[in-house]
Design brief:
α5 links the parallel β3 and β4. It is built from ten helices and 14 strands. By secondary structure, it is an alpha/beta fold. It has three domains: about 80 residues, Winged helix-like DNA-binding domain superfamily/Winged helix DNA-binding domain (Arc Repressor Mutant, subunit A, Orthogonal Bundle); about 100 residues, D-Maltodextrin-Binding Protein, domain 2 (3-Layer(aba) Sandwich), CATH 3.40.190; about 100 residues, D-Maltodextrin-Binding Protein, domain 2 (3-Layer(aba) Sandwich), CATH 3.40.190.10.
């Protein structure tokens, strides 16, 4: 019984299909099918039933999935224990935000891959909150104000932001001076979120309104540059535009409180070594501020 066959079956069971599992593993669908067939032959039972709609995990397969996952995890731990110091192997699947990830986190992931030639790194950039367990990610890098969840989180650095608008918008609509003033302006938002603003030592929650919404910060930045309203964005996205005069900071005395950069992972007693190493690299890169 091959360990890769076990890993492949776990991916098929978790992904709900051969195509999705193949994409996760970075191999062909035919290779996935061969590994599943070989595992079924070794066990003498059917783990996956082919249907007109795709596949379904059999009762025996559902029972065996947990055993296969534990065996795979134990093998990873064993390899980490006996591997040379600092040597990482296997596969690391990371989800990162689209707005910030390609510019700020991709270089760290590239450095990780360069330092560990036996590690296969798969990164997914999206501003939606991926389901780490269902979608098979080892961890995710998230920015902002972390909502409550059953995931385990490690803060790796601060994230500073500001409220910005274009000079044309300010000329046409005036500049808000207080948090209450924001309620009369067009807010550029990712949804119906609550904005936090500072007022001395206090943090206030306000619920702004606006007609332009997008699911990532880059799109909101473009809208701010076009004069559609006021956006709350991280400094990393706005600094060059503020420096050039294309955007201006509004309400500097009521800036958003510092948010954070986090590595989140599924519940478990100990993080995998590859996740720990990535976390340490991110702390070294971002703990001085952003």
């Amino acid at each position: 019984m091959e360990i890769e066959d076990l890993r492949t079956f776990v991916e098929v069971a978790d992904a709900g299909g051969i195509t999705s599992a193949a994409q996760r593993l970075g191999i062909s669908k035919s290779m996935v099918s061969r590994r599943i067939a070989r595992l079924e032959a070794d066990l003498g039972v059917q783990l996956v039933a082919r249907t007109t709609r795709g596949i379904a995990i059999t009762e025996e397969g559902a029972t065996f999935r947990d055993y296969a996952a534990r065996i795979s995890a134990e093998m990873d731990s064993a390899r980490e224990t006996i591997s040379p110091a600092g040597d990482l192997r296997g596969r690391l699947r990371v989800a990162a935000p689209l707005s910030f990830g390609p510019t700020h986190f991709a270089p760290v992931l590239s450095q990780l891959a360069r330092q560990h030639p036996q590690l296969h790194v798969y990164s997914c950039y999206t501003d939606r909150f991926v389901d780490l367990i269902t979608e098979g990610f080892d961890c995710a890098i998230r920015v902002g104000y972390l909502p409550d969840s059953n995931l385990l989180a490690r803060r790796v650095g601060p994230l500073y932001g500001k409220f910005v608008a274009s000079p044309d918008y300010i000329a046409a609509n005036g500049s808000p001076e207080t948090p209450d003033d924001l309620l009369t302006h067009q807010a550029l938002m990712q949804g119906t979120e609550i904005w936090q603003v500072t007022d001395g030592d206090r943090v206030l929650n306000i619920r702004p309104q606006g007609r332009f919404k997008a699911d990532n910060g880059v799109a909101l930045l473009a809208a701010a540059l076009e004069g559609l309203g006021i956006a709350r964005l991280p400094n990393g996205l706005t600094d060059q535009h503020v420096a050039s005069g294309a955007l201006v900071e509004v309400m500097p005395r009521h800036a958003p409180p510092a948010a954070g950069i986090f590595v989140v992972r599924p519940p478990g007693q100990h993080p995998a070594k590859k996740v720990r190493v990535l976390t340490e690299m991110l702390i070294e890169c971002f703990d001085s501020g952003s």
